[in-house]
Design goal:
By secondary structure, this protein is of the alpha/beta class. The protein contains 13 helices and 27 strands. The chain folds into 3 domains: 9-259, HUPs (Rossmann fold, 3-Layer(aba) Sandwich), CATH 3.40.50.620; 269-339 and 470-557, Orthogonal Bundle (Glutamyl-tRNA Synthetase, domain 2); 343-458, Ribosomal Protein L25, Chain P (Beta Barrel). Helices cover 27% and strands 23% of the residues. It is elongated, with a radius of gyration of 31 Å. The two termini are 35 Å apart.
Length: 558
């Protein structure tokens, strides 16, 4: 089958393999996360690639958890990963697997390597192994335990399994080549001793396989055809091939692609864990985090993330993707799907002095001009309103066209109003209230005499508005590449990445908004109802601003 997606080098490889009837023209991929943290946007790229290729070529894709390190893995992470993959729009059917499913078989394969003289039990500790391994310019040294007999190695390996040795005292290593130019081939560790309870196997095992060994064996057992990995595993491919060739088992093809690097954030799981554990963010799903759960809470849509992953494509070389492109994809999707509403985040009171005191009108507003099927709604209008404080200046510069003393502006869907008086706090001098008049002939926001106004403001009726908490999120870091200059990514954390507004108001149509609902606050940006929201105190997260840097860049290119 020829895929519908634009060609890239991985799809070209798959197409060629099908043409040559390699693997009987099957396509079977897998997404193999480690359950030691939450998935981030870089994983989304891998998810879209692995599941996408399987779908495009009428193949299969497994979800397999690489659960080989019990000290860092938790059921919480397993469940969050499954939720994230499903939320992105992919389904593994009944093909949910775990490396721990194969521990017995992996152990048996390791015994075979020992019997072939291709593996040995080593008594060097981790520091010694590192020292013996050598450097990129110096060959390694052979372990003094490298030439133990097969019988001794089998006996020691069995004792390792039975728990007769303490953690770190022995390892099982592959016997390859300590002089290899590829450090990964210098007798890598296959098994280490860890007396730790596993989230699935409990205390059955006290030795656990290393990733390079468990990964290729799991791929082989599951009949994977194309093992798609990120570029850092390119130097590990010879080891992947060595294990499978020495064992004489089914051999998938490993292919590497460039991982995602995104500006103004970090995608290292170790760094993300530090952000959470050190309290720089409020958990893995903090809307400032580049995790899928964080993006979901912030209001990103799965369609937009998939679109982003498709736009950036698949490359062989690392590069830095501008965060503005991701934000563009989010805006592009929400522009079509999010309902427009009015909200005032920093309110300034407006009294329309010539409007009847006890009168309320229901004005018609468009839900989304991009989609007529979303219909219209009614918004209440009354004598006392709130407008955005930034929409008024007492002594405006020439380029300021919004409300000012003596100036007329349009209220969205409502009337033209003119500011006639400014009320201030006698102590601080702060503007606390505006008195305005309205023109009844301009109902709906149009003037019968076609007179021009240069600004249209959003507003809410004071007696009908719902008080809300609004969280304005910005980039978590101030620099495109955090830590590039200081060598400490935390020095570039943005102290203004969250601005909390507790005095905002939203129009009454949002009274029944539920967690996860997305809206465009007219002129303010796109917002999502947070999970902390209640009927008594609705909470909205800013998903993304209306300012679109990427669109300007693309326009300039044209």
């Amino acid at each position: 089958m020829t895929p519908d997606k634009p060609a890239d080098f991985i799809r070209e490889i798959v197409t060629e393999d099908i043409k040559n009837r390699k693997y009987d023209s099957r396509v079977h991929t897998r997404f193999p996360p480690e359950p030691n943290g939450y998935l981030h946007i870089g994983h989304a790229k891998s998810i879209c690639l692995n599941f996408g290729i399987a779908k495009e070529f009428n193949g299969l894709c497994n979800l397999r958890f690489d659960d080989t390190n019990p000290t860092k893995e938790e059921v919480e992470y397993v469940e969050s990963i499954k939720e994230d993959v499903k939320w992105l729009g992919f389904d593994w059917d009944k093909r949910e697997y775990y490396a721990s499913d194969y521990f017995e078989k992996m152990y048996g394969y390791a015994v075979e390597l020992i019997k072939k003289g291709k593996a040995y039990v080593c008594d060097l500790n981790a520091d010694d192994i590192r020292e013996y391994r050598g450097t990129l310019t110096e060959s390694g040294k052979e372990s003094p335990y490298r030439n133990r007999s097969v019988e001794d190695n089998l006996e020691l390996f069995e004792k390792m399994r039975k728990g007769e040795f303490p953690d770190g005292s022995r390892t099982l290593r592959a016997k390859i080549d300590m002089k290899s130019g590829n450090i990964n081939m210098r007798d890598p560790v296959i098994y280490r001793i860890m007396h730790a309870e596993h989230h699935r196997t409990g205390n059955k095992w006290c030795i656990y396989p290393m990733y390079d060994y468990a990964h290729c064996v799991s791929d082989s057992i599951e009949g994977i055809t194309h093992s798609i990995c990120t570029l850092e595993f390119e130097d590990h491919r010879p080891l992947y091939d060595w294990f499978l060739d020495e064992l004489g088992v089914y051999h998938p093809r490993q292919i590497e692609f460039a991982r995602l690097n995104l500006s103004y954030t970090v995608l290292s799981k170790r760094r993300l864990i530090r952000l959470v554990q050190e309290g720089h963010v409020n958990g893995w799903d903090d809307p400032r985090m580049p995790t899928i759960s964080g993006f979901r809470r912030r209001g990103y849509t799965p369609e937009s993330i998939r679109n982003f992953c498709e736009r950036i494509g698949v490359a062989k070389r690392d590069s830095l993707v501008d965060m503005a492109l991701l934000e563009y994809c989010i805006r592009e999707g929400l522009n079509k799907s999010a309902q427009r509403v009015m909200a005032v985040l920093k309110p300034l009171k407006v009294v329309i002095t010539n409007y009847p005191e006890n009168q309320t009108e229901e004005l018609e507003a468009i839900n989304n001009p991009e989609d007529e099927s979303m219909g219209k709604r009614k918004v209440p209008f009354s004598r006392i309103l709130y407008i955005e404080r930034d929409d008024f200046m007492e002594n405006p510069p020439n380029e300021f066209f919004r409300l000012a003393p003596g100036r007329e502006v349009r209220l969205r869907y409502a009337y033209y109003i003119t500011c006639v008086d400014v009320i201030k706090d006698k102590t601080t001098g702060e503007v606390t209230e505006l008195h305005c008049t309205y023109d009844p002939a301009t109902r709906g926001g149009d003037s019968p005499d076609r007179r021009k106004v240069k600004a249209t403001l959003h507003w809410v009726s004071a007696s009908h508005a719902i008080k809300a908490e609004v969280r304005l999120y910005d980039h978590l870091f101030t620099k495109p590449v955090p830590g590039e200059e200081s060598n400490d990514f935390k020095t570039d954390i943005n102290p203004k990445s969250l601005e909390l507004l507790k005095q905002g108001f939203v129009e009454p149509s949002l009274a029944d908004a539920k967690s996860g609902d997305r809206f465009q606050f007219e002129r303010m940006g796109y917002f999502c109802v947070d999970r902390d929201s209640t009927n008594e105190k609705p909470v909205f997260n800013r998903t993304v601003t209306l300012k679109d840097t990427w669109a300007k860049i693309e326009k300039a290119k044209r």
